[in-house]
Amino acid sequence: MNKRVEQHQAKRTDVRRRAGDRPLASFLVRCWLEPRDADDKEPVLRGYLRNLKSGEETYLSDLKVVEQQILASLADEEAQKEGAIATVPALGHSEGR
User: Fold this and answer.
1) pLDDT at 88
2) Distance of alpha carbon 86 from alpha carbon 65, whole angstroms
3) Separation of alpha carbons 29 and 32, rounded Å
4) 4, part of any domain
5) What's the total number of domains in the chain?
6) Nearest Cα residue to 49 out of 36, 38, 60
7) Which alpha helices (H) appear in 20-63, and where do they start and end?
8) Enclosing domain of residue 55
């Protein structure tokens, strides 16, 4: 494995370690400028945000939507994590004993 790949993997591991128990989500953001009908007007920002875990896509023309969607997704991740923790049985205890 080359040195750049090793450095990249070490950075990813460090980021995961620092994230700890905090909710974590990955997104793909694609943006482009769309020309308007009138030549004298500025182009419009367009794009979409894709949640890489769920595949859900949100189309946007305002970058504020990116922040809103990411915050909502992280809140959902946190709620799911808390729900999963609450339903895991205690270790060392099994039914029928």
Assistant:
1) 45
2) 32
3) 10
4) no
5) 1
6) 60
7) none
8) 24-35+43-87
Predicted confidence pLDDT, tens digits, the chain (97 residues): 677 777 766 666 565 556 566 778 899 999 999 998 887 889 999 999 999 988 999 998 888 888 998 998 888 888 877 776 554 444 444 444 4
End-to-end CA distance of the chain: 50
Q: Is residue 6, in this structure, part of any structural domain at all?
A: no
Token pair belonging to 95: 């039914």
| CA 53 to centroid of chain Cα atoms | 8
Tokens matching residue 51: 């949640």
Is 13 domain-assigned? no
Q: Which amino acid is residue 5, in one-letter code? A: V
- Residue 47's pLDDT is 94
Burial call 55-78: b when 16+ CB within 10 Å, e when fewer? eeebebeeeeebeebbeebeeebe
Residue 52 covered by a domain = yes
Establish how many alpha carbons lie within 13 A of residue 71's alpha carbon, considering only the half-sphere containing its beta carbon: 5
